Amino acid sequence: MRPEIDLRYCKACNICVFMCPKQCFSKGVDISEKGYFAAVVDAPENCFNHERTGKLICELCVLSCPDQAISWKPELEEEKKDEHKTG
Length: 87
Ligand code: SF4
Ligand code: SF4
Fold this sequence. Notes:
Blueprint: E1 2-5, H1 15-19, E2 25-26, E3 40-41, H2 60-64, E4 70-73
Antiparallel strand pairs: 1-4, 2-3
Bound molecules: iron/sulfur cluster (2 copies).
One iron/sulfur cluster binds next to helix 1.
């Protein structure tokens, strides 16, 4: 699974940026429709839950977001590990 930020709710407090032990988030540089520099999920492949479908190992970001802006989504196809790729 990958964390996803709902831009309708993110208020750019950056708690997720500081809380995540795997540096999955970074501070935003673009202004959302709501007028905030919403945080960005720029390294979802670092997440403890990457490619997990069962019980999640970590949910620090989801639990610490004061605006409940983070939820779980399945990985995008291009984010999945492709160990058999030859080049
Ligand atoms: S903790 Fe929530 S509200 Fe704060 S920057 Fe992260 S996603 Fe946005
Ligand atoms: S679940 Fe944990 S490792 Fe994954 S993005 Fe959230 S805080 Fe980071």
